[in-house]
UniProtKB/TrEMBL annotation:
Subcellular location: Membrane
PANTHER family: PALMITOYLTRANSFERASE ZDHHC16
Annotated TM spans: 12-33, 45-67, 167-191, 203-227
Record-given protein name: Palmitoyltransferase
InterPro entries: Palmitoyltrfase_DHHC, PFA4/ZDH16/20/ERF2-like
Entry membrane topology: Multi-pass membrane protein
Domain notes: The DHHC domain is required for palmitoyltransferase activity.
Keywords: Acyltransferase, Membrane, Transferase, Transmembrane, Transmembrane helix
Pfam families with a match to the protein in the record: DHHC
Comp. bias intervals (Basic and acidic residues): 319-337
Region (Disordered): 307-337
Length: 337
């Protein structure tokens, strides 16, 4: 027991190594660009001031988005998707797999769940004891189920999912902007050092490494950012791109694709003034997503807060909610047929 705790503690410590590496490279780049380049080897005051202004804007936005991607807790299923004490007891006491499957089906009738396991059964996490909402997956690193899980990223030491996917995309975009700006403004000094117009001191090595590191990170980030832009346009997560979500009528990679504009709004929200700032503006609550076959029937995101309020409503309201969910599921089956 003590050994396992020690191993978990070491694992948590080592998981921060990639974050420390990125942070160290960024801090070094700040010193090299601001002090070694702009303060010591830039002769034009106004040009240096303009460079420093733009550099600090890029630096602040990069740090802000990186911080939000790291320290925003991943969203987990609400208590509506957890088995009640009686349902859990009934499920655990039942030994027949078919009967357990039917118990989960009966419980899921009250929930907005459209996806299934590969076997066609209700997706259930034995470790978290929770019926998985659509697009929810269990992360073995975080040891919990994550809403709209995309992947576990070691470079932010966090799960990228519903709560921080926008922050992760902004982190990639501002990282690219940061690298492009450094490479573009450092290139002229690289040429001057190369032809011997500037002194051959230790600043030369800072300039050389600044250009090399900026270009190297930009190339790698460009492919990753382009891939995630494609995922957003298709309304897929990384996991869904590798394994298509399964619905009642079978696997469908485009099951959640409701058009590029609506897909974009799901991640960034309707207020375009906030798209480029790391503040949470994503639509919905992560438990329920519009389906391609239902996008013209109803927009469930608008009513998600009222439907899944923790306080709940009267029995009559709950019955009405179940009727709405059943009607949506029937419509989905009819549309898919």
């Amino acid at each position: 027991m003590a050994m396992s705790r020690g191993l978990r503690c070491c694992q948590r410590i080592f998981s921060w190594i990639p974050v420390v590496i990125i942070s160290s490279v960024v801090l070094w780049s700040y010193y090299a660009y601001v002090f070694e380049l702009c303060f010591l080897h830039h002769n034009n005051f106004f040009s240096a001031a303009a460079y420093l202004l733009v550099f600090h804007v890029c630096f602040v936005m990069f740090c802000w988005t990186y911080w939000k991607a790291i320290f925003t807790p991943p969203s987990t299923p609400c208590k509506k998707f957890h088995l009640s004490y009686s349902d859990k007891e009934r499920y655990e006491m039942e030994e027949r797999p078919d009967a357990q499957k039917q118990i989960l089906i009966d419980i899921a009738k009250k929930l907005p769940i459209f996806t299934r396991a590969q076997s066609g059964a209700i997706r259930f996490c034995d470790r978290c004891q929770v019926i998985k909402p659509d697009r929810c997956h269990h992360c073995s690193v975080c040891e919990t189920c994550i809403l709209k899980m995309d992947h576990h990223c070691p470079w932010v030491n966090n799960c990228v999912g519903f709560s921080n996917y926008k922050f992760f995309l902004l982190f990639l975009s501002y990282s690219m902007l940061y690298c492009v700006f450094i490479a573009a403004t450092v290139f002229q000094y690289f040429l001057k050092f190369w032809v011997g117009e500037l002194s051959n001191g230790h600043a030369k090595f800072h300039v050389l490494f600044l250009l090399f590191v900026a270009l190297m990170f930009f190339v790698s980030l460009m492919f990753l950012f382009g891939y995630h832009c494609w995922l957003v346009a298709k309304n897929r997560s990384t996991l869904e791109a590798f394994s298509a979500p399964v619905f009642q009528n079978g696997p469908d990679r485009n099951g959640f694709n409701v058009g590029i504009r609506k897909n974009l709004l799901q991640v960034f929200g309707e207020d375009r003034r906030l798209w480029f700032f790391p503040v949470f503006t994503s639509q919905g609550d992560g438990h329920y997503f519009p389906l391609r076959t239902l996008c013209e029937y109803q927009n469930p995101l608008l009513a998600s807060e009222g439907r899944w309020a923790e306080d709940g409503g009267s029995d009559e309201d709950s019955t009405g909610e179940r009727d709405v969910i059943s009607a949506e599921k029937e419509q989905h089956v009819l549309s898919s047929a």
